[in-house]
Amino acid sequence: MHLSRHADLEAYTTADGSTIREWAGPGYSPARNQSLAEATLAVGASTAAHHHRRSEELYLFTAGRGRLRVGDDERDVEAGDCAVIPPGEVHQLHNTGDTDLVVVCACSPAYSHDDTFLDGDV
Length: 122
Prior knowledge:
Elements lengths: L11 E2 L5 E6 L10 E7 L8 E2 L4 E8 L1 E6 L2 E6 L3 E4 L5 E5 L5 E8 L8 E2 L4
Antiparallel strand pairs: 1-2, 2-3, 3-10, 4-11, 5-8, 5-10, 6-7, 6-9
């Protein structure tokens, strides 16, 4: 069994500008077909609009409030909400609250930097 502890996870910044801690995925756990990470977006911050050609993403919001755009659809989000982001859909997240916006992100196939394209690279 592989076990990851949040307190042991090193944070890094992804191409979209969010701070990520990865629990599971290729290269740092036995998981090969999917990945699980926590993204944090500071008050007033936004991710860069981007898409993934291969990965479907699930965003489970666990803290804070924000606004999520997926394709032409834009909605307010908050802790307890879950959004499905299909492969190829340009998406962007804005923290509109007064605390960090925290999202658990599941990707299948697993997240990879080479599958992240900034808006305009469609």
